[in-house]
Amino acid sequence: IIKIIKFIKIIKNYKKLLIATKKVICDPVCREVSRRDNFYIISPVGTLLSNRPKLAWTTVTGATSYIVRLQGSGRTLWELEVNNTEISYPENQPALEPGLAYDLIVKAMGEEEKVTQTRFIILTTQQAQKLKSEIDNIRNQNLTPQETAFKIAELYEDNNLIAEAENNYQQALKLAKNQNDIDGQAWIQVKLARINLTLDNPDQAIILLKAAYANYSTSKNLQFSSQVAQFLGEVYSSLEQKAEAIRWYQQAKTEYQAIKDQKRLQWVEKELSELNQ
Questions:
Q1: Which of 6, 64, 116, 196 is 20 to 30 A distant from 18 in Cα terms?
Q2: 177, 144 in Cβ contact below 8 A?
Q3: Which domains does the chain have, with CATH numbers?
């Protein structure tokens, strides 16, 4: 419960909550072009374990090819032109070096040229060894498979290993569904929403938060359904979707009144007052 309360501390700008507190290596996010533009790099993201990562990006309608360029230490390391949107790391290129930051730039060629990029870093050998030791420690604890997957996901997230964190949260979510653990599903969905907001993918975050809200409502857990409703209000407010922000703030207000959470109630009322001006 303490974990959930700590996480669902809502502030006005969700990116400050979900990105600035993370160990990112570029500011404010690791993409020059937002996911809201529909052209973005899927992989790699954040911090990596592999020194030969898979490279993937979204499709641009009408693109005839993509120019992929990797930069490090201010210079181009290699460049190639491909027709698909996912490639293995080139075998004829040197492996990436631990502890260094790299920029991956993808340019869509066609009638309309578009460019997107991301910055990522490879864990140092010492960091990778420490992480492995911590994962082994989790696996050696007397935990359920769901708890194990969840704790490993949190560890990956704490180390900005976004892809690994997302994969393990998904595994934990699947196990929670198999166990019909409603509150467990909701909490994992909130964590996955946080991952998607970190990746500047609020649409998927909203889907996950609505699923979490539905699960907390099913279990009649007003303490946390109210906070998820407030979280949704914050996300919609950040997206300047005023009507939806008001709707979810109003829902949070109703539930805060029911559980007599005066502190959060006052905060939500203040936000509603500003939105209704």
A1: 116
A2: no
A3: 2-21+125-275 (1.25.40.10), 35-122 (2.60.40.10)
